[in-house]
Amino acid sequence: MIDSFVYLCAIPELYWERERETQQSGLRIAHLTAEALGVERRINKGINLEIERPRYTLLCQRLETEVIQAGRWKSFKNWQEFSSLITADKFPLVPIDRNYIDFIRFTVSESPLARLGTSFFPPNEVSSHGKTFWNICTQHGVQNVSALKIRAQFFQCAAQNRCGVIELQYPFAFIDSPKADIASQLEQVRNQLFEADNAREEILATSLTLSEQDLHEVDTFQSDYKQRQVQTLSHTILQAIKNGSGANLSNRSNDVIAEVLHRFVYVQPSQSIMPAELRIIYADGSEGLPFPIRCRHQRTQSEVNWLSQHSPLKAVLMSMRHLDLDREVDLAWFRNREVSKSRALAETDEYCYQTTRELLSDALKEGPLLLHMYHTGFEPAVVGFYRAVVEALQKHNKLGVLPYYYRDKKPFELGSWWL
Amino acid sequence: MPMYSETNNYIAVKTGVEEIVQLIDSLKPHVAPVDTIQSTDLDKIETVFDLALPSSYRSFLLKYGTLSYQSVRIIGIGGASEFTSLASVLIGLRIVRPNCPSDLVPIEDLGSGWLAGLRCSTSSNENPTTSVVRLYLDALITDNSFTPIAPDFADYLLGRLREIQGRAKGWQQLKKRVAEFNKKHEYDHAKGGKLPRNHVWRPYRYCIQDVVFGTVVVRHERDSSALQVDVFLPVDVANYEPDAAAQALTLFVLSEAYKCGGTMEIEFTNNVEGGHIPASIKRLAFRHGVQLSQTRRLLPLESRQLYAALTDFSTEIRAVLEQLQKDRRLSIERACYAIHSGVWSQQEAETIILASRYPDSVLGGDALPEQRHIYLQDLQGACAAILGGILDRRLAMKEHQDELGVTYNLEDDVRHIRITFDPSTYAKWYVSSEDLPIPWIAGESGGENRIVPANTSVTVLVRARDAARLKVYMHRDLLLAQQLRLAHITACDESPIFILVPADFYELGSRVEEFINSAKSHHIGILVCPESMVTLTENAAKRLNSSRVIRDD
What we know:
The structure holds 2 protein chains of 2 kinds. Chain A is of the alpha/beta class. Chain A has helices at 30-45, 49-70, 81-87, 99-107, 123-139, 146-160, 182-208, 224-243, 254-265, 301-308, 336-339, 345-364, 379-395, and strands at 5-12, 73-75, 91-96, 120-121, 163-170, 247-248, 266-267, 276-278, 280-281, 291-293, 296-297, 313-318, 331-334, 369-374, 399-407, 410-414. Chain A is 46% helix and 17% strand. In chain A, strand 2, helix 3 (81-87) and strand 3 form a beta-alpha-beta unit. Chain B has helices spanning 17-25, 39-49, 55-64, 86-96, 153-185, 244-259, 279-287, 300-311, 315-326, 332-340, 346-355, 359-364, 372-396, 467-488, 511-521, 533-548; strands at residues 3-4, 13-14, 67-69, 72-74, 104-111, 114-119, 132-136, 147-150, 202-208, 211-221, 226-234, 266-268, 297-298, 400-401, 407-408, 417-422, 427-432, 436-438, 450-452, 458-462, 497-501, 524-528.
């Protein structure tokens, strides 16, 4: 089995300063670090992920290669030697075993600000990261694991000596396995969490008792054909919830998708909100982010009336789809060129979701937003859009979306309010 | 009426002789009952050849003697040809293939050296039930030569007849669907065109070189979330085992069912063998021990079991996958789909499963690039698998030369190589029954491959490292290679051993010569793959990205 281990390398502060970066200094990491941090920020915001993620991989690769090629790293036998190595312009280096990466796998999403799992830490982050890391280790009861202890101590020394840290991973180590295998210990924790999740899901499942009667009626569609489609899709989704499988939303009309999702998001005022998630699957075998359901109460007419007083912002979901609408709307929500790229449908869903999150966040800073959305028929765009709308509705009570559904040679049909 | 079997735990619904009689009678005047065969005739055959013929076969012999309908030729009694005479065939088999078990009763010559037969017990069991097996007569016959294909004679014959009867209807239906498809989508491989949505009928053909192995027409049924199959026409091609095409088509259908986001239920319309599960699929299921409970559909669980069975994982890999499934980390179907959708080759996937600490993370594409350490661990595992896979394909590829000396290779014209893998050293062992040319050897002059004689094991340590890391770690890899070589030397055989590295090796400057000489002094070769770590990493990142979005159940 490939057994990776990690070298921790402390690099003094001066090498991290862009002003001092020269060819003579022999180590050009300052500009790489600055760029990589910028890319990280953009990735965290969900901007241009297709371009930024490969770029990030390349920047980290170059950063690590710079350190390896510099050749000034030196291992040490005790912590007292750390400072003397720094004084001698050497980079202290220590190996830690695979328990570190195993630990990261379990905890990577616990503290996003701590940048767990990243491989470089500029001097100004070393102290705070080290403390947060040690807190997380303590919370998980693994503070006696050698790899984690060494890492925490290394970061402490690095902070004291005003160094940044770069971590280098080596596969095909073929070294002796660590005496204590943290993975099985963390696996037990994971299984306990699973069991807790399963128990919670079971309680939810029994208490939900979702049935056709529970769903509020859709009185939007005039056509019987559309109503039948709504029933079929509702039934499919109910089965998916019951079986824990995904609901395939491909090959469905965009208006039917929007209205059926609305049925599952909103509960009657007399019912309890019991947030759950619906797995979304597309026809190309890809799986999108889960869609939140059972998380909003149906709004009252007075709330609808209040929001309706505001001037609506009219948007068509995608540009270049219904060109005759251009004179009716204020903007196109998504650019057709960005949405219709050749990629998995789940990736398109994610793009639309992230874009909508940003647009809504910016728009709501200005005040209440009433959005009239003229629909087009691209399922991932619809799902991604409404996922972000539901998320925004959880945080803002001054947002309302009213869908308009295209009808051939007839006026647009109004959908259900998303408030 | 189908009968329920108490003793046969393979199939819930056992085919009755009555069903066979009904079907055969419908084939008149091609097949007709005979009056001249008596029970005593069969007793004589049993006595002479020391056999106990199963009841369904006896009933068939007594009523029809033999059967010849289109390409179905059932060996029996009577009939015009000696090649369908049971006695003649038994005598011939025992003379020509004396090591063939004496309890084998041939029932059909399948052509190209393949034979279907019954393994009949020689005891005086009053009502013996025997499964139908298939074997290749032109190879050495051992205990492993017999492939079970049907639970009994009745099921086998019914399947064969339905298969043949269904062909004419199948071809008609295919023409109709292709015409509809072309009219609606006007799709052309050269010019492109509109691609269909999943819920419309879509015809596919499966080809190797310029030979069509089979065709299917499928669509995703939105209301039931099942995959519907309207045409299923595999063709047995010479030089391939019978049902090879059916296996390929079945894997396609199962992959489509997984991909389309349905439940994995597969439904066959009335245009497929009269609305029944195709006989070839039933044979494949029986061969792999998958129980099918319905007559015209595969239930979701059955589809999943068949998918895993046909992917043919080794016992070791299967155990790992079952544990991952039990831990809810990765479903077996997802691993199968990752292979059959072309993201990973089978060898690459197996390497990942055995060698990675978190194969679910690699096959599932779980790690994101911004989670650098986890992503790098998965990326490195993927790069190593891809590098090994490039060598696998290169060794298997047979090169030919035309009259102008131009080298070319043909699809599916490959050497059969047995590959084993040791995850603790990330080493692969290759053994071929033919001479094996080894490519890319660093420091070999002349540009020609070294040829390793047939049946010689070749050891290769796979090391996907960039130049900076090769510089640091090459000496350790040489040491390990030396240890492996010493461990595997026998008195009369020294298996060659190599270290496989990417093209980054040549960036080491003066160290290149040093490493080559050091390796040579220990009888170790260095294979330098033409791909660099940059391209391997790009390739790996693309596959991890593709894996990330695949559905996970």
